[in-house]
Design a protein that fits this description.
It contains 16 helices and five strands. It is mainly α.
Length: about 425
């Protein structure tokens, strides 16, 4: 009996020693980075409230890492110390909003994190960021072109990212870093989805203008003119107060050629007769406005946006001649590599089908400027500048008709009231 008591006492002593040792170990366990972060917040939080917040931050940080953001951008943006005192409920709401915004393409949080991650990025890092962008937008492997699909994709963009935002320059330069030379025109799922994203971005930008500036009874052109008038007013203000940083200036230009956005289908009926098929059966011209070259708007003579994708309804003219966001800085070799050559391999099937719908391809006029410069391959009859050619009508060349439409739009901008809805 005595030995039993000794054994029992030793067992009790051992268990007590075990639990005490573990308790001491728990007390000495170093605080995690997030625990230290929360404890240093200048907020009136109890120990229990600190623990609640730490658990939320751990969940959010892990989710943001899985989404593709780096520890640096998470630290600098998501975990930026709140400037004002808040209670635990307010802090939870704040960090939840930051986490949600970090996954919303083009939000202020998204833009800030992108800028941290792209700075000094390698080609592989740039590709990872672009994959993150595609996931944020919800880009499918192949867009169908349906208005319902494009409305869903646009819903993943922030309402705060406007067409002339400086972020578009940063985003395009990420593409340039990830895909040098002709590499974007090569096969690959990333290349395919990234090319088709150009049409989604253009649709989002057109829809942004409609939402912010298009009142009942206005055309798309009138809404865009209001936006551009606001740009003029903003530029005049910042110039007047002496701001020199071009990041704050708006930029637009209507001098870029609209030639590629004026396709028609031409077939020979006989030696002396040809047949011209116009998109939507209407002989109209389309003209272009670009903003910092990346963003482009195409409008027809009736003042409608011409886009491959339109949540308000697709048209043949839009699918065939519509706007597409540019990854290049200007109309140069890079523009051909990033924005022209990838079309052949990566264009969506629904667009290819419409381009061949009538058994003959819709094609742009060529850029031969005089009969003397024409040859068998680039015939004068197909010229953008020939008023008597296949693309000419009403005594004007296609180029002259476009110039006329542009001049009418310039007057519209000059006479617009700079006001949002």
């Amino acid at each position: 009996m005595k030995s039993y008591r000794i054994v029992f006492a030793n067992l009790i002593f051992g268990l007590a020693f075990f639990f005490c040792t573990n308790a001491l170990a728990e007390q000495k366990k170093p605080a995690s980075k997030l625990e230290t972060y929360v404890s240093q917040l200048k907020q009136p939080l109890s120990t229990s409230e600190q623990q609640q917040l730490v658990r939320q931050l751990e969940t959010d940080v892990n989710a943001l890492k899985s989404f593709g953001w780096s520890e640096k951008s998470i630290q600098k943006v998501y975990l930026k110390v709140p400037s004002k005192k808040k209670n635990v409920s307010q802090l939870k709401v704040l960090f939840t909003k930051r986490s949600d915004q970090a996954k919303l393409f083009g939000s202020d949080i998204f833009q800030q994190m992108w800028e941290y991650d792209v700075k000094g990025a390698s080609q592989s890092k740039a590709k990872k960021l672009l994959k993150l962008a595609l996931e944020a937008v919800g880009m499918p492997d192949e867009i169908s072109g349906s208005p319902q699909e494009i409305a869903e994709l646009i819903s993943h963009f922030s309402d705060d990212i406007e067409p002339n935002e400086n972020f578009w320059k940063i985003f395009s330069r990420t593409v340039q870093l990830a895909f040098p030379g002709r590499s974007l025109a090569k096969p690959g799922n990333l290349q395919h989805r990234l090319h088709q994203l150009r049409y989604v971005i253009s649709a989002q930008q057109a829809q942004w203008v409609r939402k912010e500036y298009k009142s009942q009874g206005l055309t798309d052109a009138q809404a865009l003119a209001r936006y551009m008038k606001d740009m003029d007013k903003s530029n005049a203000f910042i110039e007047g107060v002496g701001i020199k940083d071009d990041r704050y200036y708006y930029n637009y230009d209507w001098g870029e050629s609209s030639r590629l956005h004026n396709k028609i289908a031409i077939s020979n009926q006989s030696i002396s007769k040809i047949k011209k098929t116009y998109p939507d059966g209407k002989n109209q011209v389309n003209f272009k406005i670009v903003m910092s070259f990346y963003t482009e708007f195409i409008l027809d003579e009736d003042g409608h946006f011409v886009n491959e994708l339109d949540p308000e309804g697709n048209t043949e003219n839009g699918i065939i001649n519509g706007a597409s966001y540019n990854y290049a800085n200007e109309n140069n070799k890079m523009h051909r590599y990033l924005d022209v050559y990838p079309v052949l391999l990566h264009d969506p099937q629904f667009r290819k089908s419409v381009l061949q719908k009538y058994g003959v391809a819709f094609k742009s006029p060529n850029k031969v400027k005089s009969r003397g410069l024409a040859d068998r391959r680039t015939r004068w009859e197909y010229s953008y500048y020939n008023k008597k050619g296949y693309y000419g009508s009403v005594g004007l060349s296609r180029a002259q008709r476009v110039a006329k439409a542009v001049n009418a739009f310039k007057k519209l901008v000059e006479g617009s009231q700079h006001e949002k809805k």
